[in-house]
Design goal:
Length: 114
């Protein structure tokens, strides 16, 4: 089971980024998946989920309306489109399934400058 996050970087406040999560070694299309993040000095937190059918999504309140989670099961890849970014979105972003049952990847760092 392998997860590789990418797409992070430095962006100004109100900017946008698109993160990707490439999955391998397990039946990705059978798993409900989530994005998580860990800000400096804080614990890892859940921010968004998507079901295996790419049909139902859920969001942490603080990102709802700004972030969009999606997936392409044919490519074994999940995405997080982030818009109207805020400095408080600065964190390392990770993907995993909804029960955090997979090996964590290295994450991708997002830094939002004010």
């Amino acid at each position: 089971m392998h997860l590789v996050e990418s797409g992070g970087g430095l962006v100004q406040s109100e900017g946008s980024l698109r993160l990707s999560c490439a999955a391998s070694g397990f039946p990705f299309s059978n798993r409900d998946m989530s994005w998580y993040r860990q800000a400096p000095g804080k614990e890892r937190e859940w921010i968004a989920s998507i079901d295996q059918f790419n049909d139902r999504t859920d969001y942490k309140k603080s990102v709802s309306g700004r972030f969009t989670i999606s997936r392409d099961n044919a490519l074994n890849t999940m995405y997080l489109q982030m818009s109207r970014l805020k400095p408080e979105d600065t964190a390392v972003y990770y993907c995993n399934d909804v029960i955090m049952g997979l090996n964590w990847g290295q994450g991708t760092r997002v830094v939002v400058s004010s």
